[in-house]
Structure formats: structure tokens, C-alpha cells
Amino acid sequence: MTGPTDALADVGDRVLFARLERPKTADLTRIAIVGDPHVATRSRGTHRVFHRTEQRLRAVIDDVNQRDVDLVVVPGDLTKDGEPWNYDRVDALLDELVAPFLATPGNHDLRTRGDEHDCPSAAAFADRYASGSLPVRHRLGEIELFVVNSSAGSDGPYADTHRGCVSERQLEWLGAELAGATTPVVVSHHNPFPIVSEPLCTVGPWETFTIRDRHRLHSVLENHSVSLVVAGHHHLPSLVKRGGIRQLIAPATASYPQAYCLLEVDETGTNVWLVSHASESGRDEAYELAADGPAFRRSLLGITESMLDDLPVLYEPPRVDGEPLIGE
After folding, report:
1. 180 φ/ψ sector (left φ>0, alpha ψ -120 to 50, else beta)
2. Domain 14-315 annotated CATH 3.60.21.10
């Protein structure tokens, strides 16, 4: 690694990360995916660049407000560690959004063992950020979003692990609700599909990013022809293809490469853009903090750089309905 790439040079710059044949809609629909803001009002440093998190989320909101976005989705980790003062700041920033927003909690948003501050319950989080309930089905024109909570089950948050799970109750709900949906998109914090192959994905720290018992969730997604899953948690941009399912991992707003995802869906398919929310100096700082971090974070930085040097990571050309893609 010699330094950050020039793919995203300044605030508002965007590059095509992927082009997907599905989902598609008759009318243009724009969805901003704002991954892992980790807002921290009393912390500094680390690969999460804590001392810039407020500034970065504000920059994302300012950019989104100029792009006629229909919905903002935050797939978890709004805060550093669920602190009430950080939630207060998140709320103040989100109040500036023009578009509606929808969020699911991440592993840092709900109570974990050892927390000395009050954290919201899963129900309280849903009241504030998910229209009152999780899981939730949200219609956006022709698109239907199915948002699940992979950070808590019926007994509360998974307090002893950063690894997530989709509870049996949510799996049953998802299977029932997906029946008949024509353009479904599933959202979770943790990743249903690993970005590395077995056996590496089954050992730490890689296993902490994928959902426990993920094969049960895979079956539900495949049985209902879900074309796109959106997640966060991994702190790097990624597009994983498993059969007819594409999993998009949004980069962390807090970390390098200092970007959020913009989905533009129309009758030809979906363009996935990475949109910068930092200046060149800000990206350099985030890169250097990641490069100085633990070995695993340096590995993720190298993967990120490789992807940014070879964009788009996936390109599926437009096609007539019913016409198979090459290789399918």
C-alpha cells in the first residue's frame, strides 16, 4: 500500500462502484446508504477517525440534500457505543435531512457487556429510527425494503458478541412478508454473505462480520428471489455475488475511503455510486489512521484499495426482461 487512490478526490466526487441488472423500476428512485457513522462527540483517533465523525455525517447529509434522494438508509452503528450524548448528536444531525430515513441498529448501538452508560433498547431504537418497529417493511415506489435487526433478538441485544443473528421470529416474518413482493431489497447490519471464502470466513476476526446460522437466511432470500441485500458493519465497500443475490456492503462513513453509497434505480437496473464526503486531506488522514491500525484493519485497507483501483467491481449490462445474463 503506497497511499490512497485518486478514485474519490474531493467532497461530492462520485465513482461507479457497481452496475446491477436488478432491482429495476419504471421511475427513477434514489436511495442513499449511509454506513456506520459511529458518531463520537468525546473521542479521537483510531481507524474510525472518531474526531471527524460529526463533520463527516454532516457532509453526507449536506450532499444527500442536494441530490433529490428519496430515502436514506443507515444500516447500523449510528453511534460509537450507544451513548445517550452521541444519540443526541445523531438526532440533531438527522433533523437536517430533507429526505425520510430508516435505520437498523448495529452492534455498537445497543447494550453490550461492560457498558456503564444507558443504551436504548431495541424497541426504543425502532421507535426513533424505524417507524416504530423492527423488522419493518417499507414501500418506496416499486421497491419494498425489508429491514431486519441483526443486533438483537426476542431476548434483547446480543450483548456478548459483535457477531449478529437474525432471530427465528424475524426469519418467519421475512419469509411471510417476502411472498408476493416483486422488487424486494433486504437490509441488515451484519453481512449475510462473507466476503472471503471458507475456511477463512469461519475464524476470527472474519467470522464476526457474518450472521450466525446465515444459511437459514440464505434459503429465505433464495426462495423469494431477493436480488439485493444491503449491509454495513465491515467498514469497507464490497459487492458479493451469490447466485442471483447481490450483497452490497456500504463503507463506513467514519472510516476510509470516506464515502457513502448512492443507489440510482431505473428501468435499466441499478447504478451503485460511491460518493465522497471528505476532502483529499481528510481522506489522507483516514488512510493513515487505518494504515497505522491493527494488522486486520490494514488487511481491510488493502482490500479496499484493490477494489478502488479496479472499478466497477461488477458490471451487469441492461437486458430485456426474461433474457438471461451471460453465465446464468
Report:
1. left
2. yes
